[in-house]
C-alpha cells in the first residue's frame, strides 16, 4: 500500500494533495502521458472543468488497461493556461483523487498544441504486483 508523506515540520499542502507518496518496492508503475480534454471523435469541450473531466476520463481508460483505477494514482502533474482555470481544475481533480490524495503539481503554461486546450493532466499510478 502506498503511503502519503506530509511532514509536520513543513507547511501543510495548499489544497487536497499530499506532499509526497511512498510506493513500496513490490508495486507496478504506470506513467501516463499528458492527457488533453479531447474525446475519441476529436471533440474539445469548452471550459476548464469539462476539459479536466475528459482528461481524467482518458486517464481512467489508461489505468483500466493496466488493471488500475483512480485510487492507484500516486502523482498528478497538471498544466493550465491561466490562473482563472485553477479553481475549476481543482474541483474536478478532487472528484477523481483518492484518499489519501496523491502528490500533485499544478503549473500555469503559455499554451498547448492546439489553442482550444486549457488543461493537460499526466499521472503516475502504482499497484501491488500481481
Automatic annotation (TrEMBL):
SUPFAM superfamilies membership: YjgF-like
Q: What is the lineage of its organism?
A: Bacteria, Pseudomonadati, Pseudomonadota, Alphaproteobacteria, Rhodobacterales
Alphabetized PANTHER family for the sequence: BLR7761 PROTEIN, YJGH FAMILY PROTEIN
Q: Which organism is it from?
A: Polymorphum gilvum (strain LMG 25793 / CGMCC 1.9160 / SL003B-26A1)
Instruction: Report what the protein is called.
Output: Endoribonuclease L-PSP superfamily
InterPro entries, per database record: RutC-like_sf, YjgF/YER057c/UK114
Amino acid at each position: 500500500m502506498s503511503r502519503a508523506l506530509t511532514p509536520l515540520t513543513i507547511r501543510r499542502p495548499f489544497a487536497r494533495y499530499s506532499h509526497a507518496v511512498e510506493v513500496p518496492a513490490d508495486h507496478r508503475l504506470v506513467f501516463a502521458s499528458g492527457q488533453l480534454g479531447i474525446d475519441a471523435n476529436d471533440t474539445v469541450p469548452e471550459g476548464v472543468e469539462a476539459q479536466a473531466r475528459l482528461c481524467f476520463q482518458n486517464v481512467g481508460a489508461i489505468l483500466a488497461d493496466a488493471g488500475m483505477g483512480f485510487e492507484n494514482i500516486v502523482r498528478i502533474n497538471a498544466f493550465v493556461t491561466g490562473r482563472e482555470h485553477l479553481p475549476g481544475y481543482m474541483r474536478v481533480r478532487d472528484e477523481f483523487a483518492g484518499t489519501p490524495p496523491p502528490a500533485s503539481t499544478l503549473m500555469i503554461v503559455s499554451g498547448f498544441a492546439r489553442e482550444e486546450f486549457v488543461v493537460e493532466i499526466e499521472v503516475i499510478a502504482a499497484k501491488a504486483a500481481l
